[in-house]
Amino acid sequence: MNDTSHHDERIAKMTFASVYPHYITKVEKKGRTKEELHQVIFWLTGYDDNSLQKVIDEKHTFQDFFQNATMHPNAHLITGTICGYRIEEIKNPLTQQVRYLDKLVDELAKGRQMDKILRTI
């Protein structure tokens, strides 16, 4: 993989609130719900409704978002390609965590069963 430090820095400074509406649009356009999106986010990060709303209201960066998250112990089971990168090969931990979330949102939008998205089977 090429030097991605500029890309990693850009992701770190991006606010979760700026991307969140795109997540909602993506899953709802494919017939999934905001509640299902929240279930995926809560599973990955340990956030709940109140803490997620605080992140959005206070415009936390992805760096802050994941720094304050409690990552699910099975997050490492999220593999595959997202945005042209193999998730398991991403060296920067923050970028990898953001791509974990992107992958879960993609799986939700593609109609994958929730138990598979949440790596329970």
Automatic annotation (TrEMBL):
Gene3D superfamilies: uncharacterized protein sp1917 domain. InterPro entries: SP1917_dom_sf, UCP033199. This is DUF2200 domain-containing protein. It comes from Flavobacterium sangjuense.
